[in-house]
Amino acid sequence: MNILLDNNYTAKIADFGASVLLSSGQSFIATKIQGTFGYLDPEYLMTGNLTPKSDVFSFGVVLLELLIGQKPNSHAKSGETRNIIEYFISALENNNLFGILDFQAADEGEMDEIEVVAEIAKRCVNSMGINRPTMKEVSDELAKQKALHESSWAQHKNDDTKHLLSESPRSFSKSASPSLSHCQSTHSVISFQIENNTDRLNSPLINL
Q1: 78-135 pLDDT tens trace
Q2: Taking 80 as the threshold, does the pLDDT of residue 55 lie above it?
Q3: What is the pLDDT of residue 165?
Q4: Which residues have a Cβ under 8 Å from the Cβ of 16 and sit 6 or more positions away?
Q5: Residues 119 and 181 occupy one common structural domain
Q6: Does 158 share its domain with 74?
Q7: Is the separation of the CB atoms in 84 and 75 below 8 Å?
Q8: Contact predicate 27/51, CB 8 Å
Q9: In terms of DSSP bridges, do strands 81-82 and 74-75 run parallel, antiparallel, or are they unpaired?
């Protein structure tokens, strides 16, 4: 199974060549293990038993890739192969999640969202399928986080607009005041010059 992105970055699932259609609660015993190593459910690898929770594990690995920007079994700087699941779990246990992210959180609200997604990913890649959430639970939680993010963004945008509108008249007043003061000063200088010239005209001429 491949997860593709269209021009609007909407995820599209494709290539179901090795997939099996299962109803909820059903499982399938494979006679030959198929799939990409690193994304395969460890229980499926050991027993050949394919269940809906196997897809949950694979999706959890994709979430890890998005969070830390590394592929399964990637190479560390030392050149050794790194298991990103173990790397990720270790970072969580040592409160170092934000030290391994492939991006920087913009604010505290976004940090909270990342922590929620990280917790979802952790549950998805649990080595025991029975301890993983269902795909519906994962989808519902991610949809909830998306809705909260959009609501927060809309509120933030609205607050910025109100702030700009409240600041505009004040800014205009401040920018206009110096000009008015300058005009009054100029008017005083001109009046003084006129009065000074008038005094000169009215004063008697002295002939030497």
Answers
A1: 667 778 999 999 999 999 999 999 887 767 778 889 999 999 999 999 999 999 999 9
A2: yes
A3: 74
A4: 1
A5: no
A6: no
A7: no
A8: yes
A9: antiparallel
- Same-domain check for residues 122 and 30: yes
CA–CA distance, 93 with 100 (Å, rounded to integer): 13
| Contact present, 63 and 139 (Cβ < 8 Å) | no
Distance between CA 167 and CA 126 in Å, rounded? 52
- pTM beyond 0.85: the answer is no
Specify whether 22 is located in the same domain as 99: yes
pLDDT digits (tens, 9 = 90+) for 125-154: 999 999 999 999 999 999 998 898 888 777
115 lies in the same domain as 148: no
In a domain, 199, yes or no: no
How far apart CA 15 and CA 22 sit, in angstroms, is: 17
Three-state DSSP state, 39: coil
Contacts of 133 (CB under 8 A, 6+ apart): 56, 120, 123, 124, 141
How far does the chain reach from its first CA to its final CA, in angstroms? 113
- Domain span at 18: 2-132
Q: How is residue 51 written in tokens?
A: 């269940």
